[in-house]
Amino acid sequence: MAAGRLPQALLFDGPRGVGKQRLALWLAQGLVCDNGGCGECQACRLVATLQHPDVHWFVPLEPSKKGADADKQVELVAEALAEEMAARRQQPMYQAPQGLASHSIAAIRLLLRRMSLTPALGRRKVFIVGDAERLTPQRGMEDAANALLKALEEPPADTVVVLTAADSEALLPTILSRVVRVRVARLVDSVVTDFAQQVLGMTGKAELVQRVSAAEGCIGRLLATEGDSGAGSRRAGELLEAGRKKGGGAATLYALALSQMPFQARGGFTEMLEALAGRLRSEARGGGETRKLIEAIARVMDARELAQGNVNPQLVTAVLAEDLAGARAS
Prior knowledge:
Blueprint: E1 9-13, H1 20-32, H2 42-48, E2 55-58, H3 70-90, H4 105-115, E3 125-129, H5 143-153, E4 159-165, H6 173-176, E5 180-183, H7 189-198, H8 205-215, H9 220-224, H10 231-244, H11 249-259, H12 265-285, H13 290-306, H14 313-329
Helix pairs in contact: 1-2, 3-4, 4-5, 7-8, 10-11, 10-12, 10-14, 11-14, 12-13, 13-14
């Protein structure tokens, strides 16, 4: 940025909850601020309150009404995004998108329209596409991703596009070839601990240690352990617990498989698999049986790969449950 050589298309790639979209907003401040992101001028304040007319933050949305024509769909997306940004102004510590939320073709059409406009206040426009892996809800549904290629191939000279993804391999190879990839690393536990104490007000030592350990260097996971967003983590714990049981464990495992929704493979199901892999890694770090745990993690990663296609999460969970039980018993 200081040298004026910032690429026009970036991908912030890192684990869920590590702060990629927050980093993208800070970058946007630096781009629209005349002082490189001072944090005090009008431009910086407008970005911080999600009101800058030249900074456009696109996030996955629940599917809108299907009967509307193309122009109406774009209007509905604009309204939904405005509502989401208003909600995030009220509660900046937002949760992960719901399972069915995605970047629709209408959202990308809206992005392309806004990209063609002249900056309203400054010299640049910044477009942030959060959770970009949701451009392709499942294999065979690449319309939105292909439409975004137009913006990445020849963006206007005054435009910077920042994608963020926790699963960059779910992006089309053509998109990956048009962005400069920046790896966003996990935070050290001391930073996560400070956030938990100072911002979330956690005081109990036992809870603090447990939550920071579960966060695995990702502040967003401190939030995801509460409310509905913790469903994936709870399901992962239930699946592991059922796999340890002897005798009647099989019935519990299949009941858990059937309780999984038969859709949202790239949404809630993938989140559960990520939480499951995280728990197994924690066991390995804690001195568990390395060989068995590595095998179990490999089975979870295989299931996660399947989840990127059009699969039934109930069936994949049933097979995975058997595989995990076998791996841990062998």
